[in-house]
């Protein structure tokens, strides 16, 4: 497995569009030559990409999640550097390069996902041990597992997660894919309390609903109930957040947002501004942020460039909101 491509100053400069009289985030972000330098950077946030959709394909999904990282990074680096977010807060580490498996059989795809797990978690562990907050842009939701594992090993405790998602991703643990990252994290003792915000009743099967019912450490909030409720979405979010502990990761599957291109794209979901409001107003310090499943191009030919700007908004919102707690 090819591992991590660490970005140089010229990698970052090549996708930053400089204009006279303006300063872009890409002109201010930090970069390093090796993982050992992470502790010496004063940037509290470390950005890393996992552009793969092997886990999505192993879960019978539509490939395309590999396409989001590069274009989302470009959108992020070309935000204006201002006092709200200068760019110096962010270390752009690079991205993982995973070659496609030689055969597309289910067994081979699932085996490759396990290999991806083993490559990703030590890097996440290193970032958190250095006292930094990883921001991961995917990729499939299978990568929740190595992120949770790396965070748990670094903090020497099983962690909590709040996942904004239409799907619980609690499918059986019989081969790794994008639909069972949380099942494996619970089974392996890395994930303690699991809060899910915005589940769709129509798209979680009976096995998953039963798994939720039987585990008192899983807290679901269904999108259908949010629609029926008079309560503002924000207060439901804050109620759920109170159920999570000191070390909590934030997962955001872009298929929970209306009309965002993804393998499980939905016409009914949160509006982008609702998610932005949740992130901007949250008073909890998160161990990491993982944004996954978005695509610029799907293998079936659908294409939407706006995903890049969506991701850039969410990352910059997270940094602004969390930075006030550092």
Written overview of the protein:
The chain is α/β, with parallel strands linked by helices and 326 residues long. It has eleven helices and nine strands. Strand 6, helix 7 (206-214) and strand 7 (218-222) form a beta-alpha-beta unit.
Please supply descriptive tags for the structure shown above.
single chain, 326 residues, alpha/beta, Arginase, Chain A, nine-stranded mixed beta sheet, 11 helices, 9 strands, globular
Number of domains: 1
Terminus-to-terminus distance: 36 Å
> According to CATH, what is the class?
Alpha Beta
Number of strands: 9
What is the CATH architecture descriptor?
3-Layer(aba) Sandwich
What's the quick description here?
The chain is of the alpha/beta class and 326 residues long.
